Amino acid sequence: MSAAADLESLINIKLNRRHLLGGAGALLAASTSPVAVMAAATPVERPFTFEEISHGVDETHHVAKGHDVQVVIRWGDPILPGAPAFDPQRQSPEAQAQQFGYNNDYVGYIPLGRDRAIMCVNHEYAISHLMFPGKDHITPTHCAIEQAAVGASIIEIERRGGQWHVVQNSPRNRRITASGTVFDISGPARGSARLATSADPKAEQIIGTFGNCAGGVTPWGTYLSSEENVDENFIGTLAPDHRETRNHQMMGVPGGLYQWGRFDPRFDIGKEPNEPNRFGWVIEVDALDPSNPPKKRTAMGRFKHEGAETVISSDGRLVIYMGDDERFQHLYRFVSRDRVDHKNRAANRDLLDHGILSVARFDPQGVTWLPLVFGQGPLTPENGFESQADVVIEARHAAKLLGATPMDRPEDVQPHPTNGKVYVMLTNNNKRQAGQEGAANPRADNVNGHIVELAAPGGDHGAARFDWDVLVLCGPLGSDATWNPATSANGWFASPDNCTIDPHGRLWVATDQGAKWPGTGSADGIWALGTSGPDRGRGYMFFRVPVGAEMCGPCFAPDGRTLFAAVQHPGADGVANYAPFGRASTFDDPATRWPDFDPKLPPRPSLIAITRKDNKEIGL
Question: Measured between alpha carbons, how far is residue 171 from residues 1, 223, 285 in Å?
Fold first, then answer.
């Protein structure tokens, strides 16, 4: 199938989705004007009808009655031609670079038709004590395996007999890694001396990506992946008066969690002080055309990126929402200069290199988007900015100078495709003290997080000012949470992280409590969440992960009959404080062996597909 045919399939599926969300009027508008995506009226939200599961913790997953869970692919499963079978006792960098990576996070679905698609899956980070047997994991080989295990997997899948299968030997199957993938630098930071290294003195190409957390898919079928906690991969010492000292400190560099720098000088800032500036971006990968080089799109700024979800504004420009996932960091928006061209895919190739990056300032009356533009306001040489390249490299510093609102870990940011609403997941912030509360962050010691709902006026996602509201303050019933009174004992959740919108315009939320889940007594999972009418603010528990896991990447197939999700790091978080286990979980002695439950295999992060037993749409 050609890229042009793939694009036509993608557009047709998106148009059908608009018909479900907004009625025949929205479909007609989209058909006559490909860039007009805003429905004339907000549809009535359909109620959720599944039977909730209960809070709890154990070694396996749980899903609402009447549903099945299929493991589509697991860490180590072969995806490239000639890839070896997974052998956890004899791993190698060469094998891992051909196999499904570790700690799958964001899941992006690019349709190739009704029963065929490309799945784009982030691999965020490695956990050596769960990946490798024994205790000595800081060797050149182990570090090289970790570099091959992170990044992304791109796989073609097809539905046969109600089950999803990886298309073996598909020419679209790819691995994107920290050590074996070359990215072009595009946008304002290309050629900047602050990105130059001994291996790339012209600052035009970067080897690798890592810390890939959430992401997005563009209307023309490319895959966006967000580089988040990139500080953790660097070691070394920088001179106190070095040009990058303040910049590195603001990004937490060097984090020192990984020891790659012992064997790869790129990751030692004493040897390559500019290397950290080459990470913390949004990458764009053309999943339909592997011959098109992947790019780091620097116009969207450098920070600890979480999410890159897209929506087309009422004037046809592409808007991308992004969070900076750290306590007291900010919410961002990128608005393209040019309109999306639905007829000529190639015309969108460099659309993400030109536009305005803005940061949000909340007040009780609304949200103001503050442009990060060199020469405007405080973004001048007097404050250390000599060009737009400096602004995007130090987006955090620029945002603080502009007076952006420090948020409680803004993670996934999901725009509704038709009604102008935008949902911001604020995971938690236990460092916000009394007196530091604000309109959009109303709780001190916010250990359970909350969700903020933005409203673009008239569907204009490029507007300078939005309305906003707090949808829910999360946490157990009976605490300071603010759930709909109809919420059941299982309908509450804590630490919202990833989210998605189903084909009927309804919000689904995945959670990440980290190691704090023993305090709530419940594992992470997926909840449906009402956003309008009498159901607004009511949660419904749908899926629960095995002990120590995080729930990531919920993503619906366009027909609503499959919900894909990623179970990340089973057996990892919080198990030392989990009474039935009560000790650190390791490769040799894990808290769970999900999903294989084979004594010869460690726990394996996996991509799952949830379907109804009667093959109907999920949630109806």
Answer: 11, 17, 15
Q: Looking at the 3D structure of the chain, how many domains does it have?
A: 1
* Residue span of the structural domain in which 310 resides: 3-228+280-612
Out of 5-19, 58-72, 311-325, 401-415, least confident range? 5-19
Q: Tell me what the pLDDT averaged over the chain comes to.
A: 93
| Ramachandran region, residue 336 (left: φ > 0; alpha: ψ -120 to 50; beta: rest) | beta
Over 90: is that where the pLDDT of 28 sits? Answer: no
Tell me the two tokens of residue 190. 């290309």
> Is residue 252 in a domain?
no
Phi, psi of 540 (to 5 degrees): -135, 115
Q: What is the largest CA-CA distance in the chain?
A: 65
Q: What is the CATH number of the domain that holds 451?
A: 2.120.10.30
pLDDT at residue 19, rounded to an integer: 39
Q: Are strands 182-186 and 295-297 parallel, antiparallel or unpaired?
A: parallel
pLDDT digit string, tens, across residues 234-273: 999 998 899 999 999 999 999 999 999 999 999 999 999 9
pLDDT for the residue numbered 239: 86
Nearest to 486 by CA among 544, 423, 540, 425: 540
Residue 43 corresponds to which amino acid? P
How many angstroms separate the CA atoms of 154 and 285, rounded?
10
| pLDDT score, position 240 | 84
CB 468 within 8 A of CB 454: yes
Phi, psi for 289 (deg, rounded to 5): -140, 85
Conformational region of residue 137, where left means phi above 0, alpha means psi within -120 to 50, and beta covers everything else: alpha
Structure tokens given for 432: 């916000």
Between CA 269 and CA 276, with CA 271 as vertex, the angle to 5 degrees is 35
Structure-token match 């109600």, residue found:
162
Task: Say if residue 613's pLDDT is above 50.
Answer: yes
**Which amino acid is located at 506 in the chain?**
R
Query: How far is 584 from 578, CA to CA, in rounded Å?
Result: 10
Per DSSP bridges, beta strands 327-329 and 331-339 are: unpaired
| Percent of residues, the chain, with pLDDT higher than 90 | 91
Q: Which of 324, 386, 314 minimizes the C-alpha distance to 360?
A: 324
Angle, in degrees to the nearest 10, between helices 3-22 and 24-32 = 150
What single letter denotes the amino acid at residue 228?
E
Distance CA 561, CA 540 (A): 18
Average pLDDT (314-330) is 97
At 534, list the tokens.
């009498």
- Give a yes or no: residue 269 inside a domain: no
Residue 524 lies in a domain: yes
Residue type, 586: T
Which are the contacts of 140, defined by CB distance < 8 A and separation ≥ 6? Answer: 263
Q: Would residue 242 count as lying in a domain?
A: no
